[in-house]
Amino acid sequence: MSKLIEYIKTAFWIILFLQIAPPVIKNISKNLFDTIEPKNKVGLIIVNEIITSSTKISSQLKKFFKDPEIKAILLKIDSPGGAAGSTEAISQEIILLKKQHPKPIVAYSENLCASGAYYVAAATDRIITTNSALVGSIGTKLNTQFKVQDLLARYDIKTHSVASGNYKNALDICVPMTEEQQAMLQSLTDNSYEQFTLDISKYRHLNLNQKSIWADGKIFTGNDALKLKLIDEIGNLSTAISYIKQQILHSDREIELIKCAGTSRLEKLLYPDHDEDDSVQESFTQQICSELFSWLSKQGVQRSAF
Predict the structure, then answer these.
(1) Number of CB atoms found within 10 A of residue 231's CB
(2) 115 is catalytic
(3) CATH H-level superfamily of 40-137+218-253
(4) N or C: which end of the chain has fewer CB within 10 A?
(5) Up-side HSE of residue 58: CA atoms within 13 Å toward CB?
(6) Residue of 115, 137, 201, 245 marked catalytic
(7) CA distances (Å), 143 to each of 86, 88, 200, in order?
(8) Taking the complete model, does pTM exceed 0.85, yes or no?
(9) Catalytic residue among 168, 202, 229, 259
(10) pLDDT tens, 148-205?
(11) Longest Cα pair distance anywhere in the chain, in angstroms?
(12) d(Cα 284, Cα 289) in Å, to the nearest integer?
């Protein structure tokens, strides 16, 4: 039994060493090369989904703006937009952070930078998109519930709701919308639209009196958006990185894109690429365990002992 315990201990330390050593050595080597030939660190924030909350993106922005090692920020956007309040909050967060912690921030989009996503991009210092990217869709929309009162009446189905306030059941699918309720909802979208276009005109230095041209909800290609001054340049990711390197940092040093990791310092030390190589790490672990079981089996130890 004592021999079995020794086998297990030895196997444990072998697995631990094999798991820890490669990433630690890689991290040490990386830090050594960075010391010999330092790179300019640029924070990379990826927005590639519908924006329903400002929390995650705002948190990443704060971290990069406050980090003195981060020289600039690249906001990579491929999103159709999202909630008006959330996108406005992120936009305002960028403006505030630029004042508190002056640092250049560039937005880049390959495919889609529309509606609220454009609201976010417009707050940055420069917008670069591909020629085929879809840009704009500057407008607001309130998705009201569909109404089913006619369908219910057809099958003689009756519903009853109790509400206080003339506008409380405006979105009730079983209750017809009154003209007053319709006017109230239209007023909400109008107010949101006015704020949206006002901010865009300030950020992009556009004539607010001509918003019917650039802010009627229309979507533009990157080329058309450039003509309307909704973006600053046509290019790709290399264009955005080159602009940061040459026009902002004025340095020949290589650019290192830094993602905002959600892991602890210890996890980052042990597994610096853990978020990108989970499948590789899992496969490696399975391979080691398989080899361990094989080795123990040759020593006369059965798996059932575990």
Answers:
(1) 29
(2) yes
(3) 2-enoyl-CoA Hydratase; Chain A, domain 1 (3.90.226.10)
(4) N
(5) 15
(6) 115
(7) 16, 18, 23
(8) no
(9) 168
(10) 667 666 767 666 667 777 777 777 666 777 888 888 888 888 999 999 999 999 999 9
(11) 86
(12) 9
